[in-house]
Each structure stands twice: as structure tokens, then as C-alpha cells.
Amino acid sequence: MNFLSHFYFERQNHDENMVIGTVLPDLVKNAHKDWNLYPQKKEEVFIGDKQLNALLTGWKRHLQVDLLFHSSDFFNTETAKLKQLLLPILNDSPVRPSFLAHIGVELVLDHLLVTNRKIDIASFYDHLNKVDDVLLNDFLKKSGSDDTDTFFKFLNSFRSSRYLLSYQKLENISYALQRICMRLWTHPFDEITVSLLTEQIALYKTLLEKNYLDIFEEIESKL
Predict the structure, then answer these.
(1) DSSP-assigned letters across all residues of 107-149
(2) 187-220 pLDDT, tens digit each
(3) Are 71 and 87 in contact (CB under 8 A)?
(4) CA dist 122 to 114, 134, 146, Å?
(5) Any idea what the Cα angle at residue 161 is, between residues 55 and 69, rounded to 5°?
(6) 8 Å CB contact between 27 and 158
(7) Each residue of 94-126: b (16+ CB within 10 Å) or e?
(8) I need a labelling partner for 193 at 20 to 30 A (CA). Which of 10, 186, 199, 211 fits?
(9) How many other C-beta atoms lie within 10 A of the C-beta of residue 201?
(10) Residue 61 CB partners (closer than 8 Å, separation 6+)
């Protein structure tokens, strides 16, 4: 799941440390794709500090939600649906349809949460801005990070740009997918393919909107 879908499960949580903990694994990967941090394997380092432990609790919650999501029938069914819609437009693209469908489902879920007012993006950013960066730096270093400057450069840009607000418009989902694919392929799409991608995402949205909350209710019942 993506940032806003993870936030859905903490939308009523007032602990900013736990809230940011639930999206921290994705923030870390966006900042430095080669980082592999496993703070959950060294709980004793964090357990004595209430705030650090809240970050760790959020981190573990993220892992739990992702595990439940990716092992669900919903995920398998929905990625298969979107993959079939994407296959005809990817003949001249190096992008794997299964990869694009996986990410596409997650971004459309974020979009639907926002447009149907199930979450408040402003509240998400409020939590992000309240977190003590000194505390966060300590957590990352204890988790094994040796380059927290790179992380905070990304985080500060992520905060100031309020990039997730763009998910309110469906055409920006295609743009986000293109950016993600550019991390793996130099020229993932041409302009025509991007336009076609927006059309297929719009079609898929109408299908998903009928039952998109099912997966959130299913996961919430298991947390």
C-alpha cells in the first residue's frame, strides 16, 4: 500500500511518531532505494524510549498492513484486472505490466480515499511536520542508516511540496506511475502511452470504486 492508504489506518491516531512510523519504510525507500533497514529485528534498542518505541510500533504496523494487503484475494484479483487493461497499451514499453498494475492499484486506492473524503491529507502533513527530526535521525541511525542527510533532504522536499495533494487529480496518477517507472527504465513511456495510461486508469477507477473499501475493512479487522 502507498502513503495515504497506510495513513487510513491511523487517521484517528494523535501520536505523530506512530503515524510517521507507519509510512517511514516507504519514505526511506524513496529517499534511498538501496537502503534496507530492519529496526524490528533490534527492538531492544528502542524499547526504553517512548517516542522511539512509537516510531518502531508504526514501522511494524506498516509491515503488517503490507503483508495483509499483498496476501489478500483482493490484491490478486484487482492487479489481474488492471493488468488486462494495461496490456494493450504497453506493447512498445519496457515496463512489466504486472509491476505497473501492482503500483497502479495502490495509487488508485490512495486517489479514491482522497476524493471520497475518507482521509484528510492536511492532517497527514500536520503529523509529518510535528515529528522531531532529531528523534527521527536517532531512530534511523539506530536502525542502521549511515546517510541520514540524504533522507532528510528527501523528507523536507516531501513535506514542503505536499506532493500527495496531486493525487486528487486522476491524471496525476499516470504522472506518478511514470516517475516510479523511470527509476527502473530510462524511457518507460512515450507521450501517447501516458495519455492512454490515464484513460485506462480512469476506466479502472470506475470498477474499483464499487468495492475499494472492502480491503481496508478486511485489514482493519485483522490489525
Answers:
(1) HHHHHHHHHTTSS-HHHHHHHHHHS-HHHHHHHHHHHT-S-HH
(2) 999 889 999 999 999 999 999 999 999 999 999 9
(3) no
(4) 11, 23, 31
(5) 45
(6) yes
(7) ebebebbbbbbbbbbbbbbbbeeeebebeebbe
(8) 211
(9) 22
(10) 9, 10, 18, 21, 22, 223
The number of residues making up the chain comes to 223
Q: What are the cell numbers at 117? A: 473524503
* pLDDT bracket for residue 22 (50, 70, 90): very high
Q: What is the mean pLDDT of residues 160-180?
A: 89
Give the Cβ contact number of residue 218 at 10 Å. Answer: 14
- In one letter, which amino acid is 149? D
Place of cell 509529518: 128
Q: How far apart are CA 101 and CA 210, in angstroms?
A: 18
Question: What is this structure's pTM?
Answer: 0.93
